[in-house]
Amino acid sequence: MIIEIARLIITIAAALLAGKLIAKLKLPAILGWLIAGMVLGPHAAGLLSAHLMESGWYEVTVSLLECTVGLMIGTELIWSQMKKTGKQIVVMTVIESVGTFLVVSLVFSLICIFTGLPVYLAFLFGGIALATAPAPSLSIVNEMRTSGPVTSTLIPMAAMDDLVGALVFFLVIAVVTARTSTRQIPVFVVVLLVFFPVILGAAIGFLTGKLLCRIHSPKSSVIATSAMILGSTAAGLILNWYVLPAPVLNFLLIGMAFSTVFANMIPLEQLGDIMSVLKPAVGFSLVVVILNLGAPLDYHLILGAGIYTAVYIASRAVGKYGSAFFGAAITGAPKTVRNYLGLTLLPHSGVSLIFTGIAVSTLTPVAPEYASLIQGTIAAAAVINEIIAVFMAKKGFEWAGELPDPKLRGGVHP
Questions:
Q1: Which of 150, 176, 193, 260 sits between 20 and 30 A of 160, alpha carbons compared?
Q2: What pLDDT digit, counting tens, does each position of 185-195 carry?
Q3: CB-based burial, 56-82: b 16+ in 10 Å, e otherwise
Q4: What is the DSSP-derived secondary structure letter of residue 47?
Q5: Cα separation of 204 and 195, whole Å?
Q6: CB–CB of 312/104 below 8 Å?
């Protein structure tokens, strides 16, 4: 175990160095973290090996750090500041998610009809395409200190997007399972996967808010918040290991819900004191979470990527950008949101890989050849899309004029 911890520390140090080198090229440091994960992960150098990533202590560590990263989103969702645009953002999120699903499903339906593949595969591709990985774009927000309409729209959308995506995806899985299967996914597992992380995080966040309202010392507030983050993670792990039939809880969602609730229960000054102390911990957690996101990606798949991967990446990009543009236009959002929000929603791999695993496990007993098709397509897309998407997300903020440093911004596009 000591050797494994040492290897993890070396990997994190290498990722931080890669991030700094990438940042010198005026690109987001997250791109360096992702590439370091791929290069040092199980499919390349193996410093971050599959055995290490499957160990219990590593799972606990990453779960805690994912929960901590959730603070970055939840503490920005202050209802008193959001209520003027809350309805607008909900409408935009639904339009963007459903629009992406429809575009990708339609494109792959045409492919399935012409190639003789079952059409239900098109809807699985559409369901997987909904997933947005909030951490990459939010890391750009955090690193480059972006501010403006696109940033303020993206933060709450990041919290809601995966909920809408998960709901649509599991409706698709339920229909596909009913059509194909000899094996049923229990309904309660579906409900838990979509909603329970939010319920669990919100419940512990409410207790945390009540506790923090009784505390007036900044130091005690930080200690109490840190303890409750540990408690949230522990509760999720206990449920994953001992209650649920499979580890399904999303710890980023737990952390987001947890921090959203307590952040709206305490004075803004107290919240600022807490986050000023915890900000370095959140930043470090983000590095490790992105590293963990990149490690399972097999760079060899780039060479083997076929037409399905290209079509998937292109149709998803069109769906995300077009639907975000349409949603922003009909809700009267600012011009920069309409033009550039879709670019910040392109990062994909985290939740998409979870959805892909569920789709593959559903199809393998009845149609293993189709399970392999989905797995290969999405795995290759995750590698290629993530590199392109991080670059485009940064460009979205740049063109919207939301980078504070003129050297990073390089001019504002109309």
A1: 176
A2: 555 555 556 67
A3: eebeebbbbbbbbbbbbbbbbbeeeeb
A4: S
A5: 15
A6: yes
Largest CA distance in the chain: 67
Q: Return the structure tokens found at 283.
A: 């930043």
Is pLDDT of 152 > 90?
Answer: no
Residue with tokens 């292109």: 314
Radius of gyration, CA atoms only, the chain: 21
pLDDT category at 54 given cuts 50, 70, 90 is confident
Q: Are 351 and 132 in contact (CB under 8 A)?
A: yes
| CA atoms of 383 and 352, how far apart (whole Å) | 12
Report the half-sphere exposure of 154 (CA within 13 A, side-chain side).
35
Tokens representing 109 are 């339906």
Half-sphere exposure of 192 (CA within 13 A, CB side): 15
Contact 281, 22 (CB under 8 A): no
Q: What are phi and psi of 185, to 5 degrees?
A: -85, 120
Residue 351 clears pLDDT 80, i.e. is over it: no
Closest CA to 186 of 200, 170, 202: 170
320 in Cβ contact with 342 (< 8 Å): yes
Torsion sign across C-alpha atoms 250, 171, 88, 138: positive
State the amino acid at position 378 in one-letter form.
I
Residue 187 neighbours by CB distance under 10 Å:
10
* Residue 274: Cβ within 10 Å count: 24
User: Can you tell me which residue has the tokens 């059509």?
Assistant: 179
Q: Which residue has the higher pLDDT, 201 or 85?
A: 201
Residue 163 CB contacts under 8 Å (≥ 6 apart), including other chains: 194, 198, 253
What's the pLDDT score for residue 250? 75
Residue 52 structure tokens? 């290490």
320 in Cβ contact with 345 (< 8 Å): yes
pLDDT of amino acid 323: 92
* Report for 324-328, 344-348, 370-374, 381-385: range of highest mean pLDDT: 324-328
